[in-house]
Amino acid sequence: MQETTANKVAANATSSFTEHLQRDRPELLPFTRPLAGSDLAGQPLQVPHATTIVAMTHAGGIVMAGDRRATMGNIIASRHIEKVFPADQYSVLGIAGTAGIAIDLTRLFQVELEHYEKIEGTLLSLDGKANRLGAMIRGNLPMAMQGLAVIPLFAGFDTAAGVGRLFSYDVTGGRYEEQEHHAVGSGAMFARGALKKLWRPNLTEAEAIAVAVESLYDAADDDSATGGPDPVRQLWPVVYTVNRAGARRVADRELADIAGTIIESRAAARREA
């Protein structure tokens, strides 16, 4: 007896868009596309890399921020790249590593969460989202072994627990829940130093945004691959907050005021020294 169309659809149905692509169109996945004309066994590819991402908890949720610079060796590949994206209504994703693959992986993750919601009729839990992202990073391991690694930072508001939560990853897809704050990317060492001094429990959302901007400012002061606030070009970090109401991108006007306050306070301190 011939299988009906409905039965075929049911047999092929999956709540994971990534699994659907792996089964039917694996060549569309960002980590399985051939790099035509490249010799990965020779000199490493010169491709844009994205850094630096910081994130922290506050009294009402999570703040994540990323600078706007991408580098290619010792060259500034872009001063306008965006590295923090909403994954869905209650979570955000920051990218560090090979920019092109990271952006493709981010788009795939966004579709993955949207696909799950449409198939299942409900949002995936925050732990489920974190696990799905880890599996995608693990899928990129062969590329990471050739120097094209993607190391994201993931955060969101856990609607069940009523708190913001933060997750980091390694190149194998290992998932680690971070407490208080974290940073990834080439400027992470300097950003973490700033976060340790500036972060405190029960920060308000506005205070957490200011801490995020200042930690990126400090990272840019010591890491050439991190771009600080640029008043001349009117370039500010990309900052997202996530709370019970959902994800929100912080307006450039607000970030300009925060950056101006930080720069003026540093300049005043030098004048008094």
Structure in a nutshell:
This protein is of the alpha+beta class and 273 residues long.
Task: Walk me through what this model shows.
This protein is of the alpha+beta class. It has one domain: Aminohydrolase, N-terminal nucleophile (Ntn) domain (Glutamine Phosphoribosylpyrophosphate, subunit 1, domain 1). The protein has helices spanning 5-12, 17-24, 99-120, 126-139, 141-144, 188-198, 205-222, 252-272; strands at 49-50, 53-58, 61-66, 70-72, 75-78, 84-88, 91-94, 97-98, 153-158, 163-169, 175-178, 181-184, 238-243, 246-249. The strands form three sheets. Strands 12-2-3-13-14 form a five-stranded antiparallel beta sheet, with helices on one face. It has a five-stranded antiparallel beta sheet with strand order 6-7-9-10-11. Helix 6 packs antiparallel against helix 7 and helix 7 (205-222) crosses helix 8. The longest helix is centred in the middle third of the chain and has 22 residues, at 99-120. The chain is globular. The model is unreliable at 5-11 and 36-42 (pLDDT under 50).
Which strands sit side by side, in order, in the main sheet? Answer: 12-2-3-13-14
Average pLDDT figure: 87
* Count of beta strands: 14
Largest sheet, in brief, is:
5 strands, antiparallel
Distance between the termini: 88 Å
The CATH homologous superfamily is named: Aminohydrolase, N-terminal nucleophile (Ntn) domain
The coarse silhouette is: globular
